[in-house]
């Protein structure tokens, strides 16, 4: 009897690990897609960072170190996509350090913020993590600017009407984007995390993960396809670098989200059906 219980617990643990790793892989793909999607949406000087939402969700659902990983992936996409080109032209090492630090710390601190309130109120914990993520992301960026790019920002601020280098950094570099990212994060991250965590039953949870990822994958794929066609036709309103390559990559990762979501949905439905039959 004891051996049977141990074997059962071992299977549950193994299944839970597989489910967590699968969700982590899918969220990694979602981070890549949203990081690239953000390049098509520009307010002010820089693009929106839409990838903060899955970073918060991943940090809350999977843990602190997963949050750091998602932040790292987001940072790498930013560096490789050319979005950091104005800063890379000034200081390569400073840009790499700043972008990696802000991404990793945003995910890490979000996970820690969630853990702070997790045992009291999980919904409030996600809201706190959603608030912390863009604050850390923007705060570390400003610190990096102060350390590595202040003289450059001073030059850029001349004639901008900002009045000072600090005012220029706030008003022209991060102001509008930060407020929009904060609003998106606080609205979407808690809602999605609540949907994904709606059931304690592992099979039902897998089914929910699958359905959500399938819907996201379909939406991402459709949007990426539209952007790719427009780029091929020469339409590039935001002036992003290498738009065709960018949207092909986005379409590929959207396909991964879609196929992973479909697979999870099928597996979750089969397991749920088997579990229901076993109880009869």
Compact summary:
This protein is mainly alpha-helical and 280 residues long.
What topology does this entry show?
Blueprint: H1 2-37, E1 42-43, E2 46-47, H2 52-62, H3 64-81, H4 85-88, H5 92-117, H6 122-148, H7 150-157, H8 165-196, H9 202-232, H10 243-279
Antiparallel strand pairs: 1-2
Query: Average pLDDT, to the nearest integer?
Result: 84
Strand order of the largest sheet: 1-2
Quickly give the structural class: mainly alpha
Count every helix, treating DSSP H or I runs of 4 or more residues as helices: 10
Query: What is the total tally of β strands?
Result: 2
Indicate the CATH topology of one domain. Arp2/3 complex 21 kDa subunit ARPC3
Radius of gyration, Cα only, in angstroms?
A: 21 Å
Uncertain residue ranges: 1-9
Portion in beta strands: under 5%
Return the CATH architecture of one domain. Answer: Orthogonal Bundle
Order of helices and strands: HEEHHHHHHHHH
How would you sum up this structure, described in words?
This protein is mainly alpha-helical and 280 residues long. The protein has a domain at 41-196: Arp2/3 complex 21 kDa subunit ARPC3. The chain contains 10 helices and 2 strands. The protein has a two-stranded antiparallel ribbon. Helix 2 packs across helix 5. The longest helix is centred in the last third of the chain and has 37 residues, at 243-279. The chain is globular and about 75 Å long. The relative contact order is 0.12.
């Amino acid at each position: 009897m004891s051996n049977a219980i141990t074997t059962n617990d071992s299977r549950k643990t193994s299944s839970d690990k597989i489910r967590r790793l699968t969700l982590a892989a899918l969220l990694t793909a979602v981070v890549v897609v949203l990081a690239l999607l953000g390049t098509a949406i520009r307010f002010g000087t820089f693009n929106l960072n839409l990838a903060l939402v899955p970073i918060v969700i991943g940090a809350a659902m999977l843990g602190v170190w997963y949050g750091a990983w998602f932040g790292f992936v987001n940072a790498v996409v930013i560096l490789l996509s050319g979005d950091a080109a104005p800063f890379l032209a000034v200081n390569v090492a400073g840009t790499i350090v700043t972008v990696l630090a802000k991404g990793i710390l945003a995910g890490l601190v979000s996970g820690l913020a969630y853990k702070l309130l997790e045992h009291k109120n999980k919904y409030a914990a996600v809201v706190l993590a959603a608030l912390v993520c863009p604050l850390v992301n923007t705060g570390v960026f400003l610190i990096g600017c102060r350390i590595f790019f202040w003289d450059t920002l001073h030059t850029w601020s001349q004639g901008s009407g900002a009045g000072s280098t600090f005012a220029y950094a706030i008003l022209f570099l991060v102001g509008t984007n930060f407020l929009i990212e904060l609003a998106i994060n606080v609205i979407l991250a808690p809602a999605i995390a609540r949907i994904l965590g709606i059931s304690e039953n592992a099979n039902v949870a897998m089914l929910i993960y699958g359905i959500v990822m399938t819907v996201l994958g379909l939406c991402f794929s459709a949007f990426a396809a539209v952007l790719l066609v427009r780029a091929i036709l020469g339409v590039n309103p935001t002036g992003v670098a290498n738009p065709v390559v960018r949207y092909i990559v986005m379409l590929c990762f959207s396909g991964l989200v879609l196929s992973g979501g479909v697979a999870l949905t099928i597996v979750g439905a089969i397991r749920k059906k088997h579990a229901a039959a076993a109880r009869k």
